[in-house]
Amino acid sequence: MKEIENAKETLNCDGKRKEAYEKYEKHDAMFKLYSNSSGIELVRNLKNPFKYAEKMLEKNNITFEEYVAFCEKADKLKEKNPDIKLNDLLTPDGRKVIGEMIAESQFDKKFKPEELEGVAVVKYYGLYQAVEETQGKSNSEIIKILKDYQVPIGMYDSANKRVQNDPSASIDKTHMVASILGINPEEAKYNLVMFGLVEGKMLSDFDKKIKVDQDYLYSKVDYDLIKRSEERISIIENDIRLTDFEKSALIKDQQKIIDFARQRIEDKKDKRADKRKIVEGKYWQRHIREGMSEPDDSREIG
């Protein structure tokens, strides 16, 4: 299936999503290696197991410890459910399995399945493009489009059915992609804008956190303070020189700063809200006193 071209280069503008993409690429490489062997038992029986997979492991920057952990996790999952799919990036359930495997095999306990949603937008480009372009087309045209995007007919039928059953999916490309991949429309929009597939303003995670509204302008110092403290917490958590007790104490101090800044932001919001009520009240009193008609658009107030 066709993927978004030069996706990794584009992801340089978003470190978090680039890291998720690279972790999935590593997972995919280990999955292919695992699928072409008999799993961990084969590795254990080899005299030099690292040499057996040397080229594949080196190419994808995989350590032998990571591959052994992957095989052990895969064997356990298949023992519980022989039909389980270990590399289904298309569905939320599949991404949950992959996310758990990445967390365990790549020794990143904080990795969340939701981080794979952006990766799915890259990997299933051919699928949602095909679904979009085949709407209203004849059978012969549909077949040609599927061949161009290298999309299996069964996968196409399933994705097209999801779109047909979701009224919001026919609104625009963002909702179509969200419906096909089972992801939040906001996440779909962010990635589609980043890769130039739809028009819009791409917001950073921090921008989205503060909603890029007037609150930031009124509380810039506090928002910046929160951002710095969160960055410091991340540094503290990964500092191997500190004991758990020292980390806990330092993080507690930074959390106090964050809580204090957030409270000041909320206080300023309340004051602004009260001020708006006063201004709007005076506005309506003037309109009533002067016998003026109610405006059509409430945005005219103030």
Report on this structure:
With 302 residues, the chain is mainly alpha-helical. The protein has 17 helices and no strands. It has helices at 7-10, 15-35, 40-45, 49-52, 54-59, 64-80, 92-105, 117-123, 125-133, 139-149, 153-164, 173-181, 185-194, 205-209, 214-218, 220-237, 244-290. Helix 9 crosses helix 11 (153-164). The protein starts with 6 loop residues before the first helix and ends in a 12-residue tail after the last helix.
Characteristic key phrases:
mainly alpha, 302 residues
Q: What's the oligomerization state?
A: single chain
* Rg of Cα set: 26 Å
Q: Major β-sheet, in short?
A: none
Given the helix and strand composition, which structural class is it? mainly alpha
- Helix fraction bin: 55-70%
Q: Which residue ranges are poorly predicted, with pLDDT under 50 across at least 5 consecutive positions?
A: 292-302
Shape: flat
- Tell me the total number of β-strands: 0
Strand content: under 5%
Span between termini: 54 Å
Q: On the 0-100 scale, what is the average pLDDT?
A: 82
- Number of contiguous helices: 17
